[in-house]
Design a protein that fits this description.
Elements (H helix, E strand, L loop, with lengths): L3 E4 L4 E7 L6 H9 L8 E6 L2 E7 L3 E3 H4 L7 H18 L9 E2 L5 E4 L4 E6 L9 H7 L8 H11 L10 H23 L7 H9 L3 H16 L5 H22 L4 H81 L20 E4 L8 E2 L5 E4 L7 E2 L10 E4 L8 E4 L6 E3 L2 E2 L5 E3 L5 E4 L2 E5 L1
Parallel strand pairs: 11-12
Antiparallel strand pairs: 1-2, 2-4, 3-4, 5-7, 6-8, 7-8, 9-10, 9-19, 11-13, 13-14, 14-17, 15-16, 15-18, 18-19
């Protein structure tokens, strides 16, 4: 079944030709007049006595584009099958047969904002969810994810009679996996006994970094702001005694001997109070200095660890590339002993053999894009894109740059972007591919680059 893409002023469309007859007209009317959850919305158009289905694919990506490079985990695969079984189950409420769902990597779309999967329903297409469909998914599943691979093979084992997958069976498999996942989550969340120090250590490792930092900071603050010490209490006690003596002197008539004693005790109490107070202040200064020194020591240890890591990387680099360094050194030595009268050789500029970049236009405040690691998806969503372009006019997954069949030529493909991908001012259709040439001007939304 041939699939085409088109973009007008407002929407991106996936277009499929179809045949409308009296037998399937009911299904088209049912689909057009009802918004069925799980299906891509579409409109039926008649042009040149031919009928076409226009499916809106705004802000959505097909499985082929979404997981061609970053593979599906078990959770995403389970969401896919859960969405498929849910959609198939609710089609019966509209008297529609789920065998008309188009099951292919090009026909299943993920809504990037919600992670929900949407499907294409075509009354002219009739095919059961068979073994070929599940096998095609293996190209987009992370084969290192043991649970995901196990789920794929569990479904493949269900095709023993060749009649296709039973959606009731699929629903039961999804429910079983969800139950196991929930049970595992509950077990993982159970508190460990306090006597098991090993588990306590593991729990501490799983704490949020911010909580660790806050706890560390609060500990340092406690060290700096010391609690009231013994000397401070003594200072306050002597101050109270001195105040009491002053009160006695003014409240009562004292004899000459009592007055002398009052003055002597008052002076002693005042001096002791000041002495204890100064000792307490000095201790606070020492504690502050000690805490500051501890912080500096921690910073020193952190720097030493970083330097140690750098040294290890250098040693690893020398071990890996030492031979290359020797070759470069030998080459430089050969140049040094060359005859000064030797003629200069003109280098040929091989554009295809060079590493290329997309150079941002002046005034855009965007960094240049390195094309050394291809294929690469360009967009603004870090979980989907390999190269991040932070601009509101750029889609989550905007375009892909790649080399077909490991050739030297670079190609660019628009990934159903909202504001379009332009090459030399020409807008690409959704999912359209075109080869790049030197000095081509490429635009992702309003971000302009030069390919050199």
């Amino acid at each position: 079944m041939e699939i085409q893409y088109y973009k007008d002023a407002k929407h991106n469309y996936l277009i499929m030709s179809t045949e409308v007859s009296e037998e399937n007209l009911f299904q088209y009317k049912m689909l057009e007049n009802n918004r069925i959850d799980g299906l891509l919305p579409f409109s039926l158009r008649n042009m040149d006595e031919s009928h076409y289905l226009y499916y809106e694919i705004d802000s959505k990506q097909s499985l082929k584009n979404r997981y061609g490079r970053k593979k599906m985990s078990f959770e995403i695969l389970l969401n896919l099958f859960e969405g498929l079984s849910y959609t198939a189950k609710h089609l019966g409420d509209y008297l529609l047969d789920p065998c008309h769902i188009l099951l292919s990597p090009d026909g299943i779309f993920e809504e990037l904002s919600t992670g929900r999967f949407l499907f294409i329903y075509d009354p002219c297409h009739e095919e059961n969810a068979d073994q070929a469909f599940v096998e095609s998914l293996m190209d987009y599943v992370d084969m290192e994810d043991e649970k995901g691979v196990k789920l794929i093979y569990k479904l493949l084992d269900s095709f023993y009679d060749g009649s296709g997958i039973d959606f009731t069976f699929l629903e039961s498999v999804v429910a079983e996996e969800r139950k196991e996942e929930k049970d595992t989550f509950v077990i993982d969340e159970m508190p460990m006994p306090k006597t098991q120090g090993f588990y306590d250590h593991e729990y501490n490792e799983d704490e949020e970094p911010d909580e660790k930092e806050n706890e560390k900071t609060s500990e340092k603050k406690i060290k700096i702001k010391l609690p009231i010490g013994t000397h401070f209490l003594l200072a306050m006690l002597f101050a109270i005694v001195a105040a009491a003596l002053v009160y006695l002197r003014y409240a009562y008539v004292l004899t000459y001997e009592e007055s002398l004693l009052d003055i002597a005790v008052f002076m002693v109490s005042t001096m002791m109070s000041l002495t204890c107070f100064l000792i307490q202040i000095r201790k606070n200064d020492k504690a502050f200095t000690k805490t500051k020194k501890e912080i500096d020591d921690e910073d020193e240890e952190s720097v030493e660890e970083s330097l140690s890591t750098i040294k290890e990387n250098v040693i690893s680099y020398d071990a890996t590339y030492g031979k290359g360094k020797e070759t470069v050194k030998k080459y430089m030595d050969d140049i040094a002993v060359e005859d000064e009268s030797e003629e200069t050789v003109l280098l040929t500029l091989d554009f295809n053999g060079r590493l290329h970049k997309l150079y941002a236009a002046e005034g855009t405040n965007q960094p240049n894009i390195d094309l050394g690691n291809l294929p690469a998806v360009i967009g603004k969503l870090a979980s989907c894109a390999d190269i991040i372009v932070n601009d509101k006019s750029v889609s989550r997954m905007h375009a892909k740059i790649y080399r077909p069949n490991n050739s030297d030529d670079l190609w660019i493909q628009d990934l159903n972007s909202t504001n379009g991908t332009y090459v030399n001012g020409k807008r690409l259709m959704p999912n359209e591919e075109i080869s790049l040439k030197e000095d081509d001007e490429i635009s992702f939304g309003k971000c302009v680059y030069a390919y050199r």
